[in-house]
């Protein structure tokens, strides 16, 4: 539809000077001018209608393309799971700004192609009217091409730099927003503001470069158009004196010159093209990020045995081999940065190893159908993100659990009494639910329990609970494979086995009471407690 509207606008634009010339000559000649005036009105009305409809279609095309690109980026980011290289703020910037910028390229290209067709058509019609006028006009084309070349060369780097620095600013701002309470408590607002705004000079430099180039292009194009019109008008005047042209022909010639210079007046759109190209490059970086092929095989029968075979994560975990028997309780301990979360992320299939493999009951996690894997592996985090409209939806998120199952899971997580005291109980909107950190953690724990998974992984999910509540929760969990990251000796003591990590590799695997003899092991809990 955009192309059709563009063709109508091109045709009307090229016909309008001729229609104006015919109507003018007919009126000045004193003959009947009704047909010529009517034709002028029809052509002018068609051009106006095409402009109006084109404006609406441009908005629809731009918004539709932007939404399509945004959806593709969201799908790609979710498919990358925890290994995405894009910071949260940068990803938001790419989805919010770059998707729209790249999505607007089609209307801009159609507009530039239309301007080119109109310019070529105007030159041809000008030559038909008087070849001398066409020669005068053609003398301006080399200058126009030099302007366009200079504009593109000078603006490309500034545009891309501006977009990249904008994404960096967004990432820093989002990080700071997430830690507002910490910033306020530490009294570091000024330092944090300085950190967030550190890329601002580079942004300003790129922005000023863009606008300097744009301003230079605008005034040069603004001088070129009247200069060419003056030259054409002078040549047309001699044509009138020689009785080769009429007054109407002079008006038509000026109209064709203006149309022929339309491509020059559209040169600032090349900045938009350059910006759209930069946006498309940033969108493509997200879409081109490698994603492992989706698994197609189902689960094998089993009790939830987890296995790592030479599993490696670059910069976080050395080649690691580990087996956790089904139905057992295993604690993962180690100092900060030792690789605890990396190990459980591999065991639960949230992260794919760079080398080696992870298995559940003998089946490689990478070839399992994702929906089956997520149905049998429950995950709870220390600071969970609660998703859903109401509290009940937040607990049942990602499952088909009904009201009874949701309430049972909340009782197990020791959060039921808190939720029933809310204004609308379990149906209280999540945005109106004031939950402390510990209460939110228990809701997240209930969300993991409600799946009734074969394997339950607690990534420090009970850290905010008091010891008594933690023991009560663990005692009520149904028999299943349980893996818990912890910094508490009491919880490690309850486990059947403890995996002790140090500097990205397993240092020992044994019951807590055996490892406790090692002073370095005891120091793990002393450091964490401190």
Automatic annotation (TrEMBL):
TM region(s), chain numbering: 37-62, 104-125, 131-148, 218-241, 253-273
Domain ABC transporter: 300-528
Subcellular location(s) per record: Cell membrane
InterPro entries: AAA+_ATPase (IPR003593), ABC1_TM_dom (IPR011527), ABC1_TM_sf (IPR036640), ABC_transporter-like_ATP-bd (IPR003439), ABC_transporter-like_CS (IPR017871), P-loop_NTPase (IPR027417), Type_1_exporter (IPR039421)
One MF annotation (Gene Ontology) recorded for this entry: ATP binding
Keywords: ATP-binding, Membrane, Nucleotide-binding, Signal, Transmembrane, Transmembrane helix
Domain ABC transmembrane type-1: 1-276
Pfam short name (any one): ABC_tran
Gene3D superfamilies: ABC transporter type 1, transmembrane domain (1.20.1560.10), P-loop containing nucleotide triphosphate hydrolases (3.40.50.300)
Keyword Lipid metabolism carried by entry: no
Signal peptide: 1-21
Residues in coiled coil: none
Protein name: ABC transporter ATP-binding protein
């Amino acid at each position: 539809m955009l192309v059709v509207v563009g063709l109508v606008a091109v045709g009307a634009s090229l016909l309008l000077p001729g229609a104006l010339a015919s109507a003018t000559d007919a009126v000045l000649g004193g003959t009947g001018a009704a047909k010529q005036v009517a034709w002028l009105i029809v052509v002018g009305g068609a051009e106006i209608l095409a402009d109006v409809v084109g404006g609406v279609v441009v908005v629809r095309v731009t918004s539709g393309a932007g939404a399509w690109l945004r959806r593709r980026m969201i799908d790609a980011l979710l498919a990358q799971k925890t290994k995405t290289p894009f910071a949260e703020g940068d990803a938001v910037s790419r989805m919010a700004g770059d998707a729209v910028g790249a999505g607007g390229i089609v209307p801009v290209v159609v507009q530039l192609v239309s301007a080119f067709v109109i310019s070529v058509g105007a030159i041809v019609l000008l030559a038909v009217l008087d070849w001398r006028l066409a020669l005068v006009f053609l003398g301006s084309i080399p200058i126009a091409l030099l302007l366009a070349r200079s504009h593109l060369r000078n603006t490309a780097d500034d545009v891309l730099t501006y977009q990249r620095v904008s994404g960096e600013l967004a990432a820093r701002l989002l990080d700071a927003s997430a830690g507002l309470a910490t910033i306020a408590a530490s009294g570091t607002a000024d330092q944090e503001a300085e950190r967030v705004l550190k890329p601002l000079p580079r942004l300003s430099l790129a922005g000023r470069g863009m606008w300097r180039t744009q301003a230079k292009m605008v005034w040069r194009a603004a001088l070129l158009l009247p200069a060419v019109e003056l030259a054409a008008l002078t040549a047309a005047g001699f044509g009138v004196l020689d009785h080769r042209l009429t007054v109407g022909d002079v008006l038509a010639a000026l109209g064709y010159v203006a149309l022929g210079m339309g491509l020059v007046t559209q040169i600032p759109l090349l900045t938009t093209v350059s910006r759209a190209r930069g946006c498309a490059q940033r969108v493509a970086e997200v879409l081109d990020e490698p994603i492992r092929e989706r698994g197609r095989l189902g689960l094998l029968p089993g009790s939830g045995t987890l296995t790592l075979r030479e599993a490696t994560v670059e910069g976080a975990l050395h080649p690691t081999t580990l087996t956790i028997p089904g139905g057992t309780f295993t604690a993962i301990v180690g100092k900060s940065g030792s690789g605890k979360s990396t190990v459980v992320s591999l065991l639960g299939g949230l992260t794919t190893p760079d080398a080696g493999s992870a298995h559940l009951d003998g089946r490689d996690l990478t070839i399992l159908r994702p929906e089956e894997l997520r149905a049998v592996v429950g995950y709870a985090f220390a600071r969970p993100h609660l998703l859903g409209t109401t509290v009940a939806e937040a607990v049942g998120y990602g499952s088909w659990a009904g009201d009874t199952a949701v309430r049972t899971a909340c009782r197990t997580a020791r959060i039921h009494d808190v939720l029933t005291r809310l204004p609308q109980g379990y149906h209280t909107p999540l945005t109106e639910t004031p939950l402390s950190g510990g209460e939110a953690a228990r809701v997240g724990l209930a969300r993991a329990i409600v799946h009734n998974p074969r394997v339950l992984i607690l990534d420090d999910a009970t850290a905010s609970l008091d010891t008594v509540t933690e023991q009560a929760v663990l005692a009520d969990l149904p028999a299943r494979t349980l893996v818990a990251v912890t910094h508490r000796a009491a919880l490690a003591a309850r486990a059947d086995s403890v995996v002790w990590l140090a500097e990205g590799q397993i240092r020992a695997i044994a019951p807590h009471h055996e490892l406790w003899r090692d002073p370095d092991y005891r120091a793990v809990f002393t450091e964490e407690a401190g």
